[in-house]
Amino acid sequence: MEENKIILPAIAIRGLVPLPHVDFRIEVGREISILALEQAEKMYGGNVVLIIQKDPNLIDINVDNIYEVGVMAKIQLKLKMPNGNYKVKFKITDRVKIVNYESLDPYVVVAYEKIKSEVLGNEEELALIRKVIETFQRDGKTYLVAPDEVSRLLQQGLTTEETADVMAYYLKTNDKYKYLAELSVAKRLEYLLEDAAKERKIIEIENKINEDVKKSIDESQKEYYLREKMRAIQTELGDKARQDEEVDELRKKILAAKMPQKIEEKALKELERYSNTNNQMAESGIIRSYLDFLIALPWYKTTEDTSDLKEVEKSLDKNHYGLTKVKERIVEYLAVKMMTGKNPSTILCFAGPPGVGKTSLAKSISEALGRNFIKQSLGGVRDESEIRGHRRTYVGALPGRILKGMKDAGTINPVFLLDEIDKMASDYRGDPAAAMLEVLDPEQNSNFSDNYLEEPYDLSQVMFITTANSLEDIPGPLRDRMEIIELSSYTEYEKFNIAFKHLLPKELKNHGLTDKQLQISEPAMLKIIQGYTREAGVRELDRLISTICRKAVKDILIDHKEKIEVTEDNLLNYLGKIRFFNNEGRNENQIGVVTGLAYTQFGGDTLDIEVMTYPGKGGLILTGKLGDVMKESAQAGLSYVKSHAKDLGIEVDFANIDIHIHVPEGAVPKDGPSAGVTLITALVSALANKPVPANIGMTGEITLRGSVLPIGGLREKSIAAVRTGLKTIFIPEENERDLDEVPNEVKEKLQIIPVKSVSELLSKIF
Length: 766
Ligand code: ADP
Prior knowledge:
Shape: rod-shaped
Bound molecules: adenosine-5'-diphosphate
Oligomer: single chain
Radius of gyration: 57 Å
Number of strands: 26
């Protein structure tokens, strides 16, 4: 060993790099290090060299694994720990270069040389140190392990070299040996800035990764969090979105309704939405109504049909007088239905004037079959959405009338009466008739679509029956789909029977009376029919009987009468003054007034045509409620009269008179081609100044040449003629074949004279 060589025991450091100007604390545990430590204290005044392992994982000391540069340190504090290790605090004094390894056993002894840092103190160095301090003060936390300790040290006032060492020591970077080995302080300052930049980059990347991870978590949990939050707010406010019981209850109902799978799934989804909607929100009400509707709509429930046609017949007979043909056809229709087990491809349509029993027949059918009954009126429906419903997107949206009816029916196979199908109108809001076509088509109606329901609904088991007053007003395609059964006006005789057999017993029952307490005599009943009603059906008659019952109840309860007998004489007390007189103004023969017979949607009717002439300029004036067809009839009639004036005994100068034709009374527009004969007769009567016998009526269209053409509705017209007290009517000869439609009691009261031409008619009258 050379004397001038400086040697010291050495301790190998793993994983850390001590730097001058900083206190260095480690735990010393390896045997070889502890020996060196003790030796240093004993022999070298506490001075050691700290050498630095390249690979911190190796336990044994290997010269190749030691860096060339280390530090000289002085032991400041040494504490023995219970496990035999020492905790040691060193004061680092100098950088040293290891010159030689004097010994490696039992502890390391090195020969070393102190090395000095190069401090230039030039402007460049100054600029660097400023930049370093600025950077590390601004973002100390980002780059330094103990930023507070560093700023404390800085405040004590450090040289450039000291600053560089302190910063380097506390830097987060692992790779610190370069700070030890580099002698140029300026270079070390540059390293500091580089490492800071690296660190910043790493932190940026780290932040970005954190953000990405957070984002993906956020997305998936956002909804959950929001819902939870909303729930929390609602609970906080004291109104939890839904009581769980309510939702459970609804769920049970949905499952019990046995909807088709797709619809059930939808309902449950809506329920989920409902349970998360605050009940103060409009949305909540919309969903609730929808769910209630789905639950209330029948999906599988049916009633069992009576299979006994005899029973059906009996039931129809029980509720309705007469109508033999109608009942027969109904039974035939039902027979087909029973044979095939499905609805016939056509739908029954009861056509006829009001009050003739269309609705009640349909109801009887449902009773006879044992089905539920439901009625929806189509009168005035002009908007397709009334049939198909509104989209559910706004408050107040409703299902259409069809599904509403189904809901009320409660079974999937009710008898469904569509009342007044002829009164449906179409306009810009869509064509309800088209929607009805779908409803009534057995091929299509198993998938009926309603805007509100949104899903197809099966109507194929429903028995639809429609009613109409006038067949002409039903759109063609719709009419084709229906089997028309016509119900016509009742005769007085029929009304009389209906009144005694059905209406009176029914009203007595409705008013809690017995046939002992109230009796209506036969003449009284006839007077009610003739003097108080003028209708094709029996609705008004029914109402009048009900009025009598009401008054009878009052008499019995208040005046303590035991029995009431309504007779022709005391009828006035119950119904007031007579409203209609037979033979109104027809007791005397008149000039220029003739009674025609008309066929309206309210049944048969009579109409008077009046003609008057006065000096003028050959004009023709038409007033009253006349349709176009009738105006043309008037022109044609006048032409005929003019050309046959001589034969008819007319001597007026047509150029010097005006002719006024008027059709008084009645709000119903008078149209139709069958008034030709009436017009001519009235014209001839007025122009020839010949009276027309009272109590005659007529119907028939004419050609210019004077033939009388056939008409429709003979039965209705003849019944109306009797009703208004006519004794004779003239009809076109061709209509003779329809006479078997005319009830016998009408034929008994009415002379019916067929005529072939106008001349024949006129010769018979005048
Ligand atoms: P519509 O539907 O044709 O207008 P409704 O069916 O409402 O007529 O009948 C009106 C009333 O007349 C009902 O009370 C009904 O029972 C009664 N009615 C009608 N025709 C008959 C009949 N042939 N037999 C018994 N009652 C009848």
